[in-house]
Amino acid sequence: xxxxxERSVVFGSVAEEYDAxxxxxxxxxxxxxxxxxxxxxxxxxxxxxxxxxxxxxxxxIDLTCVEPDPRMAARLSAKAPGVRVEIGIFEDFVxxxxxxxxxxAQAWHWVDPDRRWDLxxxxxxxxxxxxxxWNQYVVTDPALRxxxxxxDRRYDVxxxxxxxxxxxxxxxxxxxxxxxxxxxxxxxRHYERTDHYDAGRYxxxxxxISAYQMLDPGARETLLGxxxxxxxxxxxxxxxxxxxxxxRAR
Length: 250
Ligand SMILES: C[S@@+](CC[C@H](N)C(=O)[O-])C[C@H]1O[C@@H](n2cnc3c(N)ncnc32)[C@H](O)[C@@H]1O
Hints:
Blueprint: H1 5-8, H2 15-21, H3 27-36, E1 42-45, H4 53-57, E2 63-67, H5 70-79, E3 84-87, E4 99-105, H6 116-123, E5 124-139, H7 142-154, H8 169-178, E6 183-198, H9 199-207, H10 210-213, H11 217-231, E7 234-248
Parallel strand pairs: 1-2, 1-4, 2-3, 4-5
Antiparallel strand pairs: 5-7, 6-7
Helix pairs in contact: 2-9, 7-11, 9-11
Keywords: Methyltransferase, Transferase
GO molecular function: methyltransferase activity
InterPro entries: Diverse_substrate_MTase (IPR051052), Methyltransf_25 (IPR041698), SAM-dependent_MTases_sf (IPR029063)
């Protein structure tokens, strides 16, 4: 399995839309992750524009963020001024101390799958925690979702999470950890809510997703026109945040 590097850094070109359109993470998740982890310095991998960072930083923790895209990092620094930001990929990050918690919001799948659990283990203190989580958002109405999925198929967009049933990445993460004796106390949690998106916000959300950003700009605009015709004034989304937790055993 490899990571599509070109695709992993397309977010910066739409940093503003990304920040406005992507949902935040539930406060309860932040509470649960910090309760699970021992006290001490915290590392966030792939912090982007700081959607999770702001909520974690508000809890008064000592937080370092790793983010490779300078445009995302600029927005992150503006939003979370007290946080240390290292520009670069996690694979190249050299820690200056052990961390009590490593978390990644919607970003762990971008880190080299053959090395990510080794790298996490290397930066964690003994008993340090790892928390990886993803927002899954699906269009609540199944008939509309099917129509939108048909548009995606016509444009060869096959990997968007918006118009198909849920893909639980946290479950995959937990399975990977379950086979690794260096991690223990594995847990999986889910946080569900619904949200109404008006048409403009929904189209921004679509624009912020890498599968659509990778399209030729002309094709993307035509696709957005088709989506717009289907959704009218807007739609309801079901948002679930899936969290996988583990602890360094040794
Ligand atoms: C989908 S965004 C998530 C951003 C933010 N955590 C959030 O929840 O909105 C994925 C982020 O991972 C970053 N990224 C991509 N490859 C990475 C890597 N190898 N190491 C660290 N971050 C990476 C991207 O630049 C991007 O900001």
